[in-house]
Design brief:
By secondary structure, this protein is α/β, with parallel strands linked by helices. Strands 19-20-18-17-21-24-25 form a seven-stranded mixed beta sheet. A five-stranded mixed β-barrel has the order 2-4-5-6-7.
Length: 816
């Protein structure tokens, strides 16, 4: 079998065929890969496949001819009948030479064309029934035939001139023949063509048509060779011209040095020196840039190093060295800007105004870095933009979400191809000021990998004691960041590294209440969407009930991002009605929303209509606000198993076990059998099992549900609770109270039990919520059980301070 077959020399003319074949006979077959053998041609090639070597040995030993035919796909290792061309050449094996290894070199001479009808043997080598295709009689010479032969001579002569390693002997052999079929076969055998094209020539049995086909293929090959030659000449000319230019420039440089004139690049270097002098740079920076300019002068024209130096100088000179905007430190003006751009957020606004008041009294105060933390859509980024407008500072925003490479902060060394400064200096260059407000967005989503830790690189940036000499890897000189006001935003502080968190002052932005969302929609979102969609106030009107229905029935979020999308959808449908002429104006009410926004997506979970045993209303915090979270407990006769379901996290499971331990320690006071943990199975379940749940704040809810199920005392249905429990029954404080109380009000709850330590947080709750709910601060779980289950627990079991902690205060409505 043929490996990658090679032809070591030209084919030779065989004047007489020594092979005598019958009309049809069985003979060995050798499949060729990338090679075609023509009649009356002698050539040699290497054979590597075992089946092909055996076929040659059989032909040589028996004196039989061998049928040489090409494979349709050269990648096939063991070809079958359908993998071979049926037209091939019946050939004589003249010589077999054994090479080192398993390969052999064979010399064959083609005799006549043949057609394979079928394979009679496939192992250990191929045998086939082959029929000889007799050569057609020589046609009568006509003027057209003569013209075709002459045209072929010309093409082949041009081919010999262009093709490498083509000897003049080949052309002489062609010119000595006037047989069209022989000329076509000879040229096809000796020129470089695709195997498929050579097979097409072999299969053409009519000499004139064969010569015509070859002429078309030869013409294409000549055209390809001419294009290759032309491209090669262009490359050589370009190289020669570049060498000539280099020599001339070097000679010109020597002449100018002899004459005392400037070297090439002197004008460019002088221009850089003028720019450096105008910038009034720090001494260290000016010295470094002047050194780089001197290096640039010594670089030859067009050198790669010169390009790197130019890029470095341009980047350094584009930075706003010493350029600052005049800061407007006016608390009253800033308050007006913040109130105009944002509704609510009073705590955040107050902190920003305090910062401005200190700046007004102490303009040189540095090092205050604010971090705005809150759920998505509550206005963290927009309030930073308003702050920049209030201070009259340029704003530059850097999104840090998904950044894994330290070089994104510090930049790359200027010697690397495509290097550039880090994002900090790039943002300052874009702002065009040394004292911009730099907003580092999504700082909690920084990553780290083998390329470095970006959060560690930010430690220097956000440290007032270090950032006055911040060194970017690309710049290699210090840049003063002490006048930059850094504002960062995050959704949570849990993923921010502690050293980085210590450098920032945290300002929390909590979820908006429904009333705040209503006012934001009326004052900000709806006017903006009307303007964006080309609507006038008279063309689209909203009732307050319609906006409230969108807030409660079509959105579930802490911020107002989805609310804005829903208002935009209403504006689009209104525009469609106005353009189609079906209405001149649209008035949106709560009842007409389904027609525009579809079926209501969210329905509040209402409290049970009747009091139930083992079912307690808990309160949970989520990233989109508060939720009412039911806790269900079933007690059945068993062996003391405790099963916890509902996609619970480890902390919540530990709360359930802590609740069970507390109940076991209080069985006598609670009226529960002392061995219930051995005779009863307890199943605690949290509905909506597909939603992950975790945290300790459901501790008292789990305890109450367990006691209710064990004592068969129903739980008050209008009551909800939140708080962490300890093994001694103490109730510890929790977070997210504002969102949880809003969820309670939204779901029709009347009374909320909360930890005593959270009593101070009631001041931050919306006045509407505080007026509608009754709050019971508790310190011990016995108070929770007494309130929720009306259990009679002896007074000595309660803490001594219980009466004092549950007494009414002006800020809290308490009823015993």
């Amino acid at each position: 079998m043929v490996g990658m077959l090679c032809m070591d020399g030209p084919a030779y003319d065989i004047k007489q065929n020594e092979v005598i074949v019958m009309t049809e006979q069985t003979m060995p077959v050798m499949a060729l890969r990338g090679l075609t053998v023509f009649p009356n041609m002698l050539l040699h090639f290497d054979v590597g496949r075992e089946a092909s070597i055996r076929a040659l040995d059989e032909a040589m030993a028996s004196g039989q001819p061998v049928f040489l035919t090409g494979q349709r796909e050269i990648s096939v290792e063991n070809p079958k009948f359908e993998d071979l061309y049926d037209i091939g050449t019946i050939s004589n094996v003249r010589q077999i030479l054994r090479l080192p290894g398993d390969n052999v070199r064979v010399m064959v001479e083609g005799a006549v064309r043949g057609q394979m009808h079928s394979l009679t043997q496939t192992a250990p080598f191929l045998m086939a029934a082959v029929e000889e295709i007799p050569s057609q009689e020589e046609v009568r010479r006509s003027t057209r035939t003569e013209a075709l032969i002459r045209h072929t001579y010309e093409l082949f002569e041009r081919y010999v001139e262009l093709a490498p390693r083509m000897t003049p002997d080949i052309l002489i052999n062609i010119l000595s023949s006037e047989d069209p079929g022989y000329i076509a076969d000879y040229i096809a055998q000796n020129i470089v063509m695709r195997a498929g094209d050579k097979q097409a020539v072999l299969e053409e049995l009519r000499p004139i048509r064969r010569l015509e086909r070859l002429g078309r293929l030869l013409s294409r090959e000549v055209e390809i060779l001419e294009l290759e030659l032309e491209m090669g000449n262009r490359v050589r000319e370009q190289l020669t011209q570049n060498q000539k230019d280099y020599v001339l420039r070097e000679q010109l440089k020597v002449l100018k040095q002899e004459l005392g004139e400037e070297e090439q690049g002197g004008d460019e270097a002088e221009e850089y020196r003028i720019q450096i002098a105008k910038r009034k740079l720090p001494d260290e920076v000016e010295k470094k840039l002047c050194k780089e300019v001197s290096r640039l002068e010594k670089q030859p024209f067009g050198s790669a190093e010169g390009t790197v130096i130019r890029n470095y100088l341009d980047t350094c000179l584009e930075l706003p060295w010493g350029k600052k905007t005049k800061e407007r430190v006016d608390v009253a003006a800033a308050r007006k800007v913040l109130d105009t751009d944002h509704y609510g957020l009073n705590k955040v606004k107050e902190r920003i105004l305090e910062f401005l008041a200190v700046k007004q009294l102490s303009p040189n105060l540095k090092g205050q870095i604010l971090c705005l933390v809150g759920p998505p859509g509550v206005g963290k980024t927009s309030i930073a933009m308003s702050m920049a407008r209030a201070l009259n500072r340029k704003l530059a925003r850097i999104s840090l979400g998904g950044v894994h490479d330290e070089a994104e902060i510090r930049g790359h060394r200027k010697t690397y191809v495509g290097s550039m400064p880090g994002r900090i200096l790039t943002a300052i260059r874009q702002a065009g000021s040394c004292n911009p407000l730099l907003l580092l967005d999504e700082i909690d989503k920084l990553g780290s990998d083998h390329r470095g830790d970006p959060s560690s690189a930010l430690l220097e940036v956000l440290d007032a004691e270090q950032n006055s000499t911040f060194r970017d890897h690309f710049l290699e000189v210090p840049f003063d960041l002490s006048d930059v006001l850094f504002i960062t935003t995050a959704n949570t502080t849990d993923t921010i590294p502690r050293p980085l968190l210590d450098r920032m002052e945290i300002i929390e932005l909590t979820s908006y209440t429904d009333e705040e969302k209503l006012q934001i929609a009326k004052k900000h979102l709806l006017p903006r969407e009307r303007k964006r969609h080309g609507l006038k106030p008279a063309q689209l009107k909203f009732t307050d009930d319609a906006i409230r229905e969108i807030i409660t029935g079509y959105t579930r979020e802490s911020g107002v991002r989805v609310l804005e999308q829903k208002l935009a959808a209403v504006c689009r449908k209104t525009a469609m009605r106005l353009v189609s002429g079906s209405a001149k104006s649209v008035h949106i009410t709560g009842d007409s929303l389904e027609e525009l926004l579809g079926v209501r997506r969210y329905h509040p979970e209402r409290m049970p209509r009747t009091e139930q045993v083992g079912v307690v209303n808990g309160l949970a915090w989520t990233s989109v606000g508060g939720e009412l979270l039911e806790v269900e407990v079933n007690v059945v006769t068993g062996t003391g198993k405790v099963e916890l379901t509902g996609n619970l996290g480890d902390v919540m499971k530990e709360s359930a076990h802590a609740a069970l331990s507390y109940i076991r320690s209080r069985t006598a006071q609670l009226g529960i059998e002392a061995d219930f943990y051995q005779t009863k199975d307890i199943h605690v379940h949290f509905p909506e099992g597909a939603v992950p749940k975790d945290g300790p704040s459901a501790g008292i809810a789990i305890t109450t549900a367990m006691v209710s199920a064990l004592t068969e005392v129903p739980v008050r249905r209008e009551l909800a609770m939140t708080g962490e429990i300890t093994l001694r029954g103490r109730v510890l404080p929790i977070g997210g109270l504002k969102e949880k109380t809003m969820a309670a009000l939204r779901n029709g709850i009347k009374t909320v039990i909360l930890p005593l330590d959270n009593e101070k947080d009631l001041e931050e709750i919306d006045q509407t919520v505080r007026g509608a709910l009754r709050f019971i601060p508790v310190e011990h779980v016995d108070t929770v059980l007494a309130t929720a289950l009306d259990l009679q627990i002896t007074s000595h079991d309660l803490p001594d301070t219980l009466v004092e902690h549950t007494a009414p205060t002006p800020a809290v409505v308490l009823k015993q």
